[in-house]
Amino acid sequence: MVQIDIDPDKCRGEGVCRAVCPKGGRIYKIVDLGGRRLAVVMDESSCMGCTLCVSRCPFDAIRIDFKKRSRLRDVDF
Questions:
Q1: Which entry of 38, 46, 54, 71 is 20 to 30 Å from 29 by CA?
Q2: Is residue 77 part of a domain?
Q3: What total of structural domains would you count in the chain?
């Protein structure tokens, strides 16, 4: 699992994150908060970790924390 953080001070709610993400409509939602548009994370469990949202955000407002990912691949079966 990953953790997606959006900096509300940098985000302008243009929706680039939602547009470029393969699962954008499921993960991101653009909301209007008091006349200001902002992207919010709705379902980060659907994130594939492709980082398209991070690389394409024109405001450098998105961070993905991969340390939260499952370590199942490190387990011997």
A1: 71
A2: no
A3: 1
Residues in the chain: 77
pLDDT in tens, 15-50: 999 999 999 999 999 999 888 999 999 999 999 999
List, in order, residues 6 or more apart from 22 with CB less than 8 Å away: 48, 50, 52
Contacts of 40 (CB under 8 A, 6+ apart): 6, 28, 29, 30, 31
C-alpha span between 19 and 43 (Å, rounded): 15
Helix-, strand-, coil-residue percentages of the chain, each rounded to 5? 30, 25, 45
Element (H, E) at 72: none
Phi and psi dihedrals of 61, rounded to 5? -100, -5
Domain containing 66 — which CATH number? 3.30.70.20
